[in-house]
Hints:
By secondary structure, this protein is α+β, with helices and mostly antiparallel strands. It has 3 domains: 68 residues, Beta Barrel (Thrombin, subunit H), CATH 2.40.10.10; 102 residues, Thrombin, subunit H (Beta Barrel); 96 residues, Roll (Pdz3 Domain). 21% of the residues lie in helices and 37% in strands. It has 7 helices and 20 strands. The strands form 4 sheets. A 6-stranded antiparallel β-barrel has the order 1-2-3-6-5-4. A hairpin with a 5-residue loop joins strand 8 and strand 9. The longest helix is centred in the first third of the chain and has 18 residues.
Amino acid sequence: MKSFSHLTQFVSNQGVKGHRSSDLNPPDDSEALDAYSESLIKTVEKAGPAVVHVASRNGQGHGSGFLMTPDGFLVTNSHVAQGKTEFDITLQNGAEARGYLVGDDPATDLALIQVTSPEKLPHLEFANDLTLRVGQLAIAIGSPLGFQQTVTAGVVSALGRSLRSESGRLIDDVIQTDAALNPGNSGGPLVNSRGEVIGVNTAVIRPAQGICFAISCKTACYVATELILNGRIERSYLGIAGQNVGLLPAAKRKLRINTDTALLVFEVQPGGPADRAGLRPGDLIIGFDGNPVSGIDDLHRLLGKEMAGKLFPLRIVRNGEEREVQIEPVSSR
């Protein structure tokens, strides 16, 4: 106790440098807080008018969305659209409009709606995703639990997350944020301090606090553009159903691969690309076009629309022996 008291006395004396604690004044944070508040207010005033409430006409589903063009193209989540074709849209000023589904992409949980309006509508622009940084301000605007034009703020917690869509496909390049999201926020924008869209709010982890997700602006911009031009997203497919399976260390050594898993084919679509290439149930896919395949998600990432109509080498294992076949993916259109 004696040595501890001496140490406490030494630290105390060194810390105050001979001044009494009553002489010390805490730093004034009011200017920093005022600047933060002012930044949030300006951002919300800029972005808020373009954020809308989206409700299906039968009243069975609702969520948020935002206008991306002055002629009424509106981005929301696929699970908000829920396969419906007509919607009631409520603008920030309370005005109501009719919306019609342009296209839906469950694989990225995004949908595009066209709002009918005789006037130009307020709209948001997408941010440059290359400027996104962990720790930067992130502001969510939407209609959680039906409370329209609700604002929450936080930061970009992480970049490059992956999230599985309701279709089962993995969505890449997802933004994690601690800006509070609740049911009804889905489809609303996550914006930066300039009021630009950095993401489309899509999901929360319910048991957790402060772990929420938004589809990146890069993905949203691409999908929205494709839906405007074509009404749907083209992807390539092989015509198989499969599941991920683990590999034994001896099998990894024999096949000269580093992945712990591979894709086991358990169904081949008759007449599809895999059938024409000679694949059979029980084959193990370990590579495609020179890239390792550790499971269905790897294959999804590799099968872009540009792959359709071209031959690619597919590495498989059949009856314990490795072989290579040529396969021609086809478009999902």
